[in-house]
Specification:
Blueprint lengths: L1 E3 L5 E4 L15 E6 L2 E9 L7 E4 L5 E5 L5 H10 L1 H13 L12 E4 L2 E4 L1 E2 L7 E4 L2 E4 L8 H26 L6 E5 L4 E5 L4 E5 L7 H13 L8 H10 L3 H15 L1
Helix pairs in contact: 3-4, 4-6
Bound molecules: zinc ion (ZN).
């Protein structure tokens, strides 16, 4: 079980529609003009889907799921009918802060939930970068600092997180075999049946209450290996404000990517 990045999948559903057309081939892509600019739309047939679903993806393209019995023309009409919704989602996506690709001096990055500006450290600014409370050695100040800083933050997370997990586990009488801190691209954390908790090092970039929520989210999977209503009741009992943490993660997902 895992906590996923949540910010980019805005989903709109319509009523179930049922008919038994034969399945014509689906063109892989097609584009739709939204607010005067083309949006790439991928059509995907899913025989288990019960209705048409339009989704905006993180890269700004859209996807329409065609349900069992649905057709390509109908999928295209469905996307066209929902252009205004797509335009709104695109605006929201553009308004969200983006993580800069290159990290150089002056770039602001998230560290422990705060935006910190990467700065050269005095008095010997040639090889050292200040990132919040951390002083990080880099090969060259003029280069992209991202790899060196990410490596440092990962190491810091790997030192800090395991004792936190074990403390929460002890408080809730749960037994954890192993804690790993990893570089997952699409998960905040995971929990295996054998009691291994894996956390994403990027939780060092979130506020502590968000990190704690993910720790508790994964620990509660030791009680319920699913996302059932019963599971969420367990989470709510140990982390009553978990919805606030979920919202934070949603709002900042692009910064962390
Ligand atoms: Zn989960």
């Amino acid at each position: 079980m895992f906590a996923k990045w949540g910010a980019d999948s805005f989903t709109l559903r319509v009523q179930f529609k049922f008919n038994w057309n034969p399945l014509p081939p689906v063109p892989a892509e097609w584009s739709l003009v939204v607010d005067g600019r083309p949006v790439r739309v991928t059509l995907v047939r899913n025989l288990r889907a019960r209705r048409y679903v339009l989704r905006l993806r993180a890269d700004g393209s859209a996807r329409v799921t065609i349900p069992r019995g649905g057709s390509v023309p109908e999928a295209q009409r469905f996307a066209e009918r929902n252009q205004a919704w797509l335009a709104r989602q695109l605006q929201r996506q553009a308004a969200r802060p983006q993580r800069p690709d290159q990290w150089i001096l002056g770039t602001e990055i998230l560290f422990r939930g705060e935006l910190v500006k990467l700065a050269a450290r005095e008095p010997n600014p040639s090889r050292w970068v200040q990132c919040g409370s951390e002083t990080i050695k880099v090969a060259e100040l003029a280069a992209d600092l991202r790899a060196a800083i990410e490596k440092h933050l990962w190491r810091l997370a790997a030192k800090e997180f395991p004792p936190i997990v074990h403390a929460f586990a002890a408080r809730h009488q749960l037994s954890v075999n192993r804690v790993t801190v990893r570089n997952q691209r699409s998960r905040w954390g995971s929990c295996s049946r054998r009691g291994t908790i894996s956390l994403n090092w990027r939780l060092i970039q979130t506020p502590a209450f968000v990190r704690d929520y993910i720790v508790l989210h994964e620990l509660m999977h030791l009680r319920q290996m699913n996302h059932s209503a019963r599971y969420w009741r367990e989470v709510e009992q140990v982390c009553p404000d978990y919805a606030v943490a979920e919202r934070w993660l949603k709002r900042h997902a692009t910064l962390l990517r």
